[in-house]
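name: query_chain
kind: protein
chains: 1
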Amino acid sequence: MTTTYAYENEDEHDMGAAAAMGTSTDAEPEAEVPAGAEVDLRHHGDAEVRGGDGLVDLAVNVRAGTPPAWLKQCVAESLDGLAAYPDGRAARAAVAARHGVPSERVLLTAGAAEAFVLLARALRVRRPVVVHPQFTEPEVALRAAGHRVGRVLLRADDGFRLDPDAVPADADLVVVGNPTNPTSVLHPAADLVRIARPGRILVVDEAFMDAVPGEREALAGRVDVPGLVVLRSLTKTWGLAGLRIGYVLADPDIVAELARAQPLWPVSSPALAAAEACVGPRALAEAGHVAHRVAAERSHLVAGLGEVPGVTVTGPAEGPFVLVRVDGALGVRERLRERGFAVRRGDTFPGLGPEWVRVAVRDRPTTDTFLTALRAALHPPS
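structure:
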C-alpha cells in the first residue's frame, strides 16, 4: 500500500505558498517534514567515497571509464573559444532535434540539479508533492524556496511501484523519477500520464533514462501531456558530473518562466560543446550499445546478489544501479570499505531505513570481486 503524507496545517501551508510567490506573510514558513521521516537530504553518493583513497566506487551512478576519448577531444577543442561568452543556440537546437521538438521547448541547465532549483523558485505552486524514495534534490530545492513539501512514500512491499491515485488531488506540482533513483524502478509511461492534468505541473526526472534499452517508458519529446516537464542529465552515461550539463523539455511558456530565473550565461562553453556532441548520432548509437551492456551487467549483479544469504534485491531493476536490503547494513558498509568498496547508504532517502544500500552496476570482474567482499562483510570471522 502506498503511503501519502498530507499537509499538517492548511494555514501554515498557505503561508509557505505565499512566501514562494513573493507575497508577504506574518511568519517565516518552515518546510514540512512528516513526523519520523527526517533524513539528511543533502547526503549524496560522492560523500561515500571521500576520504577513502583507492576505494572502488559503487556509490555514485556515473558510468565508469568515461568520458570517452572522442567526447574529451570535443570538450578540449571548445577551450579555444573561452574568450567569448557562451552561445547556447546550437546546443539547444541539437537537443531539440534529438527529441523532435521545437527549440522553444528546450532549456539548457548546469546539470539537472539547477533545473530543480529553477522549478522551485520560478513556478508559482501551492501544493508541491515529491514521490519518494527518489533523488532528494527536488525536495531540497522546494524547501529552500519556502515551499511546504508533501510526500508520497512508495513501499518496498509494493516493489516501490507508483499508484497514480496516491497523488493528492490538490497537488499542483508532482515530482517523480523514472527510472527512479535509488529504487531502479521504471514506472510505466501510462501511469505517469495519469498523474498529469490541467493546472498541474508534472516533473519527470529522466536522468537515467538513456541507460534503459530503447528508452521505453520515456516521456521526453511528448507534447500532448498537460503540464509535463521532463529533465535529462548528460552527466551519468557520459561521465560529465564535473562539467554540469543537463536540460529541460517543457511547454514554451514554462521554459520561458524558468529561463527568466536563470543567470546570464548559465552553461559554460565546454558544457555546451558536450551537450551538442552527446545528442548527436554517434553518441546516441553508443548510448544504445551502453544501455544493453549495462542491462547485461546488471543482470549479472542481481543474480550474484540473489545468491548471497542475508541480501534481498528490489526488482525488477531497470537503471544502472540496484537497491538491496542487507542484514546489518550499517556494519556491512563499514566492512566493505575495509575491503575496498564504497556503496551508497539508503537511510538518507525518505522512505528507506538503515537496512538499505544502493549498488552501482559495474563490469563483471568488478562485480565478482565485490560479491566476494560482500559475503565476507556479511559473515566476518569471529
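note: The radius of gyration is 21 Å.
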